[in-house]
Every structure is written in structure tokens, then in C-alpha cells.
Design a protein that fits this description.
alpha+beta; about 20% strand
Length: about 130
């Protein structure tokens, strides 16, 4: 089922504000890692926000996501200060690792490893007349 306009609006708002929170509070939340919110998906009742994160400069991305989920109440408090006047309720947060960059790298590697023969350059077709 497609997301409603309201879900999309909330998703964009929360993604923008979480990005600002991560930029401002990042050092206290995850040391030197550079974390970005690549997507936020809202539940139909707007009570749950699933945040997909991408991380650079961290040895273990999964551990970083676990750390974010352990501190999600603190992050939700920061979010409440930013959007509390604009929404009825602050959604519960869950963070997930965005695997799209890794998946794209794997696909790129597969394409590079393909052995594709060169096209015939003599202008003749394989079809006999």
C-alpha cells in the first residue's frame, strides 16, 4: 500500500530534523562516525518512524545502529524539542542500517567481473538469407 501524503510529509520532516540532530549532537551520540539518515518510513498511524541510516568512519556499522537504538529515547527527546509544537505526538523511533550502498557496490563488482565478448565489427549479421 502506498504511503499517504501525511505519512510522506511526516517522513520528510523527521528525516530533516534527525539529520540536524545527528549533525549537532553527533559527537555525543556516536563519537567520530559520520551518520546520515537516508530514509524515514512512517507507520500509517504516525506512531512509529523507521529511520534508515548510513555510516562512514566506523569499523562496525551494525554496532553503531545498535548503539543508536539503545539511545533512541534520548534522540526522541531531541526530536520532541524540535517538532513538538508541530505534531500531536512524537513517534517512537527504530533505526536500521541502510544496505543500499553495499548492495550497489556488490552489483557494480559483478558487472566489472562479467566477461562480455566484443561485438562483431565487420558489419555482417548472423542471419542467413
Amino acid at each position: 500500500m502506498a504511503d499517504s501524503k501525511r505519512q510522506k510529509k511526516y517522513s520528510r520532516l523527521i528525516q530533516k530534523d534527525l539529520g540536524e540532530i545527528f549533525q549537532r549532537e553527533g559527537r555525543g551520540l556516536f563519537d567520530k562516525a559520520f551518520v546520515t539518515i537516508t530514509e524515514v518510513v512512517m507507520s500509517p498511524d504516525l506512531s512509529l518512524a523507521k529511520g534508515y541510516v548510513s555510516a562512514l568512519m566506523t569499523p562496525d556499522k551494525r554496532q553503531l545502529v545498535e548503539h543508536l537504538n539503545n539511545r533512541k529515547y534520548e534522540i526522541r527527546g531531541f526530536l520532541g524539542h524540535k517538532i513538538g509544537k508541530h505534531v500531536k505526538a512524537i513517534p517512537e523511533l527504530h533505526f536500521y542500517l541502510d544496505n543500499a550502498p553495499d548492495h550497489a557496490d556488490r552489483i557494480d563488482k559483478v558487472f566489472k567481473e562479467l566477461q562480455i565478448p566484443d561485438e562483431k565489427t565487420d558489419g555482417s549479421d548472423d542471419v542467413e538469407t
